[in-house]
UniProtKB/TrEMBL annotation:
Organism of this sequence: Pseudomonas urmiensis
Alphabetical list of PANTHER family matching this protein: GNAT FAMILY, PUTATIVE (AFU_ORTHOLOGUE AFUA_3G00765)-RELATED-RELATED, N-ACETYLTRANSFERASE DOMAIN-CONTAINING PROTEIN
Name of protein: GNAT family N-acetyltransferase
PROSITE patterns: GNAT (PS51186)
InterPro entries per the UniProt record, alphabetical: Acyl_CoA_acyltransferase (IPR016181), GNAT_dom (IPR000182), N-acetyltransferase (IPR051531)
Pfam families in alphabetical order: Acetyltransf_3
Start and end residues of each N-acetyltransferase domain: 12-181
Length: 189
């Protein structure tokens, strides 16, 4: 399958990673507010390693977490994309959709806009049957994005994230799902 290196929405370019994205990406991943639903903010080295893993996912599967660039300013604002769930999940194997944006670009609808574009790619180009998303129970901003793009909460899908220790406050996770038929319905309004 031809790798999907580039997508577009009205206000955003979803593109491959440039070496000079690291400065902004590392700053975003070092922001405790951005990372409050993750175990810890990332060091610059960890952020660089994450970009490496994202590139590796594109190389292996032809899709991944795209870097987001605003068309109006050319600014790098974060990432949104599709990736194979990489832990032994009760709902796996599955492809998940995820997002992380720098704080100054929150509240403008960019996460939802990029996520819509990725869902279209998942169903229309990659021909996937289903996409999932999950986050800690307390991450309501992320759940709002899931709801905004038509994903449905699966109440039976809640799980304890195996990468976090028992008792960790972020360990309980909620699961959202969307399948092709439901996505087509959301398009029809
Ligand atoms: C999760 C996250 C990406 C959401 O960002 P966001 O800016 O709140 O999300 P959106 O871009 O979809 O914006 C939605 C808000 O913008 C508003 N908005 C403004 N203009 C809009 C537009 N043109 N279209 C859609 N929404 C718009 C919406 O009304 C919505 O407001 P609401 O949340 O009060 O309903 C962001 O909080 C983040 O990066 N968090 C840290 C990383 C993280 O937790 N990632 C998920 C891990 S699982």
């Amino acid at each position: 399958m031809t790798p999907i290196l580039h997508l577009e929405s009205a206000r955003l370019t979803l593109r491959q990673w440039h070496d000079d994205d690291l400065r902004e990406f590392a700053a975003m991943c070092a922001d405790p507010q951005v990372m409050r639903y993750f175990p810890a903010p990332l060091t610059r080295l960890e952020a660089a390693a994450l970009i490496g893993r994202i590139r590796g996912h594109f190389n292996e599967y032809g899709f991944g977490l795209w870097a987001l660039e605003r068309k109006d300013s050319g600014a790098f604002i974060g990432m949104t994309g599709l990736l194979h769930v990489n832990f032994d999940a009760p709902f796996g194997p599955a492809v998940e959709i995820g997002w992380r944006l720098a704080r100054r670009h929150w509240g403008l609808g960019f996460a939802s806009e990029a996520a819509w574009t990725c869902l279209r790619c998942a169903f229309a180009q990659l021909r996937l049957d289903e996409v999932v998303s999950f986050t800690s129970q307390s991450n309501l901003p992320s759940q709002k994005v899931m709801q905004a793009i038509g994903m449905l909460h699966d109440p039976d899908g809640s799980f304890e994230h195996p990468r976090l220790p028992p008792g960790h406050p972020l360990r309980p996770h909620v699961l959202y799902r969307i399948n092709r038929a439901h996505w087509q319905q959301t398009l029809r309004g």
